[in-house]
Amino acid sequence: SDHALVYPASPAEYDWSTHYPAFAGSGKTPAFADIGCGFGGLLITLAPLFPDTLMLGLEIRVQVTQYVHDRIAALRATSAPQISPHPSSYQNVSVIRANAMKFLPNFFPKASLTSLFFLFPDPHFKARKHKARIISSTLLAEYAYILAPGGLVYTITDVQDLAQWMRAHLEAHPLFQFVEEEELRKEGKGPILDAVYGSTEEGKKVERNGGEKWLACFRRIEMHRQA
Ligand code: SAM
Known about the structure:
By secondary structure, the protein is of the alpha/beta class. Helix content is about 30%, strand content about 20%. It has helices spanning about 40-45, 60-80, 105, 135-145, 160-170, 180-185, 190-200, 200-210; strands at about 30-35, 55-60, 95, 115-120, 145-155, 175-180, 215-220. The protein has a seven-stranded mixed β-sheet, sandwiched between helices. The protein binds S-adenosylmethionine.
């Protein structure tokens, strides 16, 4: 249950400086959000690649969130410039415990995200549980709101039925357009795609078990109004 979760009343009220002290006063808010980040493998991989981009993981499980928090704190401590010269001091990555199905727009300002990740989300196999899926028409309206036009949604799963579900919902939404992996690689998104495929704990597990992975990416497009 959510009883212990606290949500900001609006994104303007959220104080990101506790998450990213090195960026305090920069006015920056997270641009990458990893929904259901699990043990944090994606963001830990991306953080050094985009040291000026703030990244946030959202995770509902208390212990898992704490684990990611401690993992980031340890990386920050051991990669501090005075200890080891390192391309990243992981100052740009953080995690919060949150139910991502609730109040996302209270954390993220409108059009503030450039990338939204849904990596190996829980499949909720039974039909009566489909409303618990993290991709739905209602939630897509929120994702479209917090994403900047041109921003990207990355989805990947080893569950074929869920892959079809996510793709069908995203393709049906007027603000999202499917983008081929090849096109994204041409745009320089290769390192992100590689991390999406292989950097997370769940993605590695699927690899160990020889499972298949279905990737689908979508661009948040501008609404073209008809005259
Ligand atoms: N993305 C990670 C990876 O690829 O390793 C984790 C995948 S795991 C199968 C799904 C994760 O989503 C779990 O850690 C779960 O606790 C989290 N989760 C499920 N529902 C959530 C929600 N409503 N809000 C935030 N996190 C959620």
